[in-house]
Design goal:
Shape: globular
Strand order of the largest sheet: 1-2-3-4-5-6-7-8
CATH class: Alpha Beta
Order of helices and strands: EHEHEHEHEHEEHEEEH
Helix content: 25-40%
CATH architecture: Alpha-Beta Barrel
Distance between the termini: 11 Å
Number of strands: 10
Number of helices: 7
Radius of gyration: 16 Å
């Protein structure tokens, strides 16, 4: 099964609706001055008492350990996502502070050497997220770089994904999961429930599957 994360959620009603569709992870952005930013005082109400089957992720980018700790200590998140240029020691420190939280590290993939960097992080984090480095802009990675990619930990594909290009992305890259934001929304932070329903139908359907993925 392909894990599905919908990121950049800003509304409680949409969080509940998307969780009830059967999505695996919901992402909330704690990065100031970004289009889908949710202020820290709003985060607890957004993530409390959601269906138990869905996991919640708080996304940070190039913020301090103190920033991460102040938010995670006050909100019941299941996972922490680091979406900037956080060095390996920083990830280790966050993992030591929150050993009960899943740690997701985003890696910008622009050339093959970036995949070697990703494999280094895979020794410390729980999940790798490979994207183009811009976050929420709808721009895909060059999928051909990922054709033979191997990771010792699960990895998710992000960047420019939509219900329309999902079959091709899954066949070419064979990820453990996918992470979508702009590809399933009407405007930044406002998700399109019909598109997410379509996405899940594509992922859990049979039409896109090939012998490579059986």
């Amino acid at each position: 099964m392909i894990t599905v994360k919908i990121c950049g959620i800003t509304q409680r009603e949409q969080a509940e609706a998307i969780a009830n569709l059967g999505v695996d992870f919901l992402g909330f952005i704690a990065v100031p001055h970004t289009p889908r930013y949710v202020p820290p005082d709003r985060l607890p109400a957004l993530v409390k008492n959601l269906p138990a089957a869905v996991k919640t992720v708080c996304v940070f980018r190039n913020q301090s350990v103190a920033d991460v700790q102040s938010i995670i200590d006050k909100s019941p998140f299941d996972a922490i996502q680091l979406h900037g240029q956080e060095p390996l020691p920083f990830c280790q420190q966050v993992k030591e502070l929150f050993p009960d939280k899943l740690l997701i590290k985003a890696i910008a993939v622009k050339q093959l050497s970036d995949l070697q960097t990703a494999q280094t992080y895979a020794k410390v984090v729980d999940i790798l997220l490979l994207d183009n480095g811009s976050g929420g802009t709808g721009k895909p990675i060059d999928w051909s770089l990922l054709t033979n990619f191997y990771s010792p930990c699960p990895w998710w594909l992000a960047g420019g994904l939509s219900p329309e290009n999902m079959p091709a992305a899954l066949i070419q890259t064979k990820p453990n999961g996918v992470d979508l934001s702009s590809g399933v929304e009407d405007s930044p932070g406002v998700k399109n429930i019909a598109k997410i329903t379509q996405l899940l139908g594509v992922i859990h359907g049979k039409a896109w599957k090939s012998d490579k993925l059986q």
